[in-house]
Design the sequence.
């Protein structure tokens, strides 16, 4: 046996500590449908997605459950056709909301997907065949206070968009130029990132033939047509405009119509007592 | 229109001269306004609208109601023209300005003859988004006010 090593290393002791910190992976879920407005009982495919789905090459643990809440009784439970998978195809017959209930890495969340069913006869206008659009026209007209004296009435404007990814319609209320100007609506229709502006609306709250105000006739006004052309040019695609009137009639017109053909481009609709519109196809 | 009286403070002659010039200038401009405006896109649009409403069949309830609202006769397109002769333009402008309580020389109008009626509008006379138009008979008696 030789001499014991007297190297400095063999005469040292070591101590220390280390800290391990971790951040829990937080994921989020999203859900969409392949259609949002149905013209009667129709098959709808719901698709959910989770982000992130992988972290460091490991799948983020998750589960999903589909849950249906109907607006009204009937229609059964479409969610019972859906398994615990990211894609669900089922038949919807009444308006309601499909919820995608997620548990992602132990955290719960829920994403609603709103589906509406049109029970009115189709008009051929996809917006008018959307109950939400019709309901919003009613709400806007209520806000217009057409029952008030002219100084108490307001043209209430609004704007409809579609989501560029899902196609889901989106309504944005707009600000009137003057809350007491019953002959004028907004001058500003905002662009929304991720959405395409499709249709402008504004009420015409003056009764047709009401001689106490000059803007008492059928719309659209010349300025409505002009504004629509400017909007379409600004957004670089066709846009349409609709004006509900106090007597329930609705006028809609597209952009891109020559000035001398404007009135002929107006499509007229008459509101029925059940809230549905029918197209007035008289020449 | 009503005029409101204002107490006028003493002014230096220079300021008074400027104000006198300012007052005189709009009058000089107004005097140059033609009774009928040169044809433009407003003329085309107004003519197009009125032609549609006046020539549509009675089964077109939208057009029929607009005819009633605007005091327009039902007629054919050959009876509808944009007026440019100075006599008729002056008469139409005077009638339109009188109804609105304006000095005729301060307005310039578009005049469309529809059979025996005249539709007159100054496209710069707005109420909100609407333009103020009038329909007159052949004697330039007002038949209807309407917004366009």
Sequence:
């Amino acid at each position: 046996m030789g001499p014991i090593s007297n190297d400095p290393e063999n005469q040292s002791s070591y101590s220390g500590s280390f800290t391990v910190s971790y951040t829990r992976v937080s994921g989020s879920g999203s859900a969409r449908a392949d259609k949002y407005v149905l013209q009667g009982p129709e098959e709808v495919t719901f698709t959910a997605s989770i982000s992130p789905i992988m972290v460091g090459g490991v799948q983020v643990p998750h589960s999903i459950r589909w849950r249906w809440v109907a607006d009204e009784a009937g229609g059964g439970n479409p969610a019972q056709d859906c398994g615990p998978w990211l894609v669900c195809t089922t038949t919807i017959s009444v308006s309601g909301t499909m919820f995608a209930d997620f548990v992602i890495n132990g955290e719960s969340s829920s994403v609603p997907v709103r589906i509406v069913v049109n029970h009115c006869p189709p008009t051929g206008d996809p917006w008018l065949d959307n109950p939400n659009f019709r309901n919003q026209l009613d709400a806007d007209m209520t806000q217009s206070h057409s029952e008030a004296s002219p100084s108490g009435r307001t043209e209430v404007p609004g704007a409809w968009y579609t989501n560029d990814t899902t196609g889901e319609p989106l309504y944005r209320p707009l600000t009137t130029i003057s809350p007491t100007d019953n002959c004028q609506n907004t001058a500003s229709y905002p662009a929304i990132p991720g959405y395409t502006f499709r249709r402008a609306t504004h009420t015409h709250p003056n009764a047709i033939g009401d001689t106490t105000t000059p803007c008492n006739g059928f719309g659209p006004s010349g300025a409505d047509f002009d504004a629509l052309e400017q909007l379409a040019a600004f957004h670089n695609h066709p846009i349409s405009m609709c004006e509900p009137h106090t007597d329930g009639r609705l006028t809609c017109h597209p952009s891109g119509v020559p000035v001398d053909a404007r009135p002929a481009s107006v499509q007229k609709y008459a509101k029925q007592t059940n809230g549905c519109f029918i197209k007035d196809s008289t020449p | 229109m009503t005029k409101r009286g204002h107490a006028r403070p003493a002014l230096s002659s220079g300021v008074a001269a400027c104000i006198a010039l300012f007052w005189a200038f709009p009058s000089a401009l107004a005097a140059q306004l033609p009774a009928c405006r040169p044809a433009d896109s407003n003329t085309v649009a107004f003519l197009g609208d009125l032609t549609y409403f006046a020539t549509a069949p009675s089964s077109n309830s939208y057009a029929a109601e607009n005819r009633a609202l605007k005091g327009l006769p039902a007629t054919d397109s050959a009876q509808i023209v944009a007026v440019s002769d100075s006599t008729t333009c002056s008469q139409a402008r005077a009638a339109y300005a009188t109804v609105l309580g304006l000095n005729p020389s301060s307005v310039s109008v578009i005049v469309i003859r529809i059979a025996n009626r005249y539709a007159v509008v100054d496209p710069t006379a707005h109420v909100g988004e609407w333009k103020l138009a009038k329909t007159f008979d052949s004697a330039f008696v007002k038949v209807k006010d309407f917004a366009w």
Remarks:
- The mean pLDDT of chain B is 82.
- DSSP finds four helices and five strands in chain B.
- The two ends of chain B are 23 Å apart (CA to CA).
- Strands of chain B lie at 80-82, 110-114, 117-127, 130-136, 142-147.
